[in-house]
Automatic annotation (TrEMBL):
Pfam family, one: Ribosomal_L21p
Domain of life: Bacteria
Tagged with keyword Ribosomal protein: yes
Family label: Belongs to the bacterial ribosomal protein bL21 family.
Described function: This protein binds to 23S rRNA in the presence of protein L20.
Disordered as annotated region, ranges: 81-103
InterPro entries, per database record: bL21-like (IPR028909), bL21-like_sf (IPR036164), Ribosomal_bL21 (IPR001787)
Name of encoding gene: rplU
Name listed for the protein in its UniProt record: Large ribosomal subunit protein bL21
UniProt organism field: Litorimonas taeanensis
Transport among keywords: no
PANTHER family listed in its UniProt record: 50S RIBOSOMAL PROTEIN L21 (PTHR21349), LARGE RIBOSOMAL SUBUNIT PROTEIN BL21M (PTHR21349:SF0)
Subunit structure of this chain's protein: Part of the 50S ribosomal subunit. Contacts protein L20.
């Protein structure tokens, strides 16, 4: 069985025992999390498409770890002006293992 869920403004196709990395979710490692925004669910040829969500469907998961993504560098420069600025940013993210799909 698989499902398409929406979290953090992005959509993910998931199945049982998948590990996905999503935008930061509240909670510690080992906490359970429930994704209620299921856009599509099904098995093989039997697919339920939501309008916009599938009624009664939910996906449960377990938080594996809270971490930071790879650093993104922002570099500004104006030629011939000796103007250079370099900044870095690391986005927070959460690794989640999908434990069950209902509906």
């Amino acid at each position: 069985m698989f499902a398409v869920i929406q979290t953090g403004g992005k959509q993910y196709k998931v199945a049982k025992d998948d590990i996905i990395v999503v935008e930061k979710l509240d909670g510690e490692a080992g906490d359970k999390v429930d994704f209620g925004d299921v856009l599509l669910s099904g098995t093989g040829a039997d697919v339920k498409v939501g309008a916009p969500l599938v009624k009664g469907a939910s996906v449960t998961g377990e938080i594996l770890e809270q971490r930071k993504a790879a650093k993104v560098l922002v570099f500004k420069k104006k030629r011939r002006q000796n103007y250079r600025r370099k900044k870095g940013h690391r986005q927070n993210e959460t690794a989640v293992k999908i434990t069950g799909i209902k509906g």
